[in-house]
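Q: Okay, next protein. This is MFS transporter permease from Geodermatophilus maliterrae. I've checked the sequence twice, so it should be correct. Can you predict the 3D structure?
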Amino acid sequence: MSARSTSAPAPTPAAHPGTGDRGRLGAVSHWWTRPVPLARIAVFRTIAYLFIPVDVFLTTAWVSAHADVPTAYYQPLVVGELLNLPTPTSTVVHVVQWALVAAALAAATGRAPRLLGTAVFLLYFEWMVIAMSYGKVDHDRIAYLVALAVLPTIGVARWRDRRSSEAAGWAMAAVLVTVMLTYFLAAWAKTRFGGWDWATGSTLTRAVVRRGTFLSDWTLEVPGLLMTLQFAMLALEFAAPLMLLVWSNRARVALVVLLLGFHVMVYAGVTIIFLPHCIAILSILPWEKAPEVFAALRRRLGAGRAPVPAAAPPG
């Protein structure tokens, strides 16, 4: 028998000051860089880039109207001033618009992911500065903008790429944290600027009166219902950091269903939808499982079709 197998186990070393801190730092580092399959990145990247033409021409088509607004009304965001971005004249707006769409469609092919992805991020960043420098700043863009910023850092990824990457894990963790902060900071802003009057007031009542649909008008007739929903909304938004504990693929799917269900419900009730934020939420899904899911669906559909009996030979 070898000496290694017969030797007594080494004594446990005494705890060293700071060991627990290093362990916690290691756990945090592992969470941020937990490897993610590159196939997940490839699918989400395609979705994120193909959404840009939809956003430019449909969901935020009003941004291009700034091309006809006198430049005197342009009050750049702080970041626009710091970077000395150009004043959005008609030429600037249209060049950014069409260059953004062209770059996004090219990036959706997966080619030159770093070059084209960086171009998409910079152009969309400028598009958002043009959009939000006239007195209205939306909070549903930040997670999507972060997604566009981190996608180019990953490099080449294919739909059926089974390799895992820590860089991909870091990128998706950054998007998840930003999605979480969008909810948490929304609750913080509500209580900071409105106090608890936001929850006890008529916030949702006003929204339903102004933008309600037949699916939500009835809530005006139920005493206390909308106020209860306001408290529930604050509670859920303050609890948003819990989504960082999501680990398994099933939990990820459940989280996405919950978040998207909330936004669909809001749209059904008051016709407000945060589409860019919803696209960022899709980054949570385990897209690398998509080919297997589609193959299983095809097998089920094929098995459900009854075989056609062969024709009897003429007798």
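A: Here is a summary of the prediction. The first strand starts at residue 36 and ends at 37. Residues 180 and 240 are 6 Å apart (CA to CA).
Q: Noted. On to the next one.
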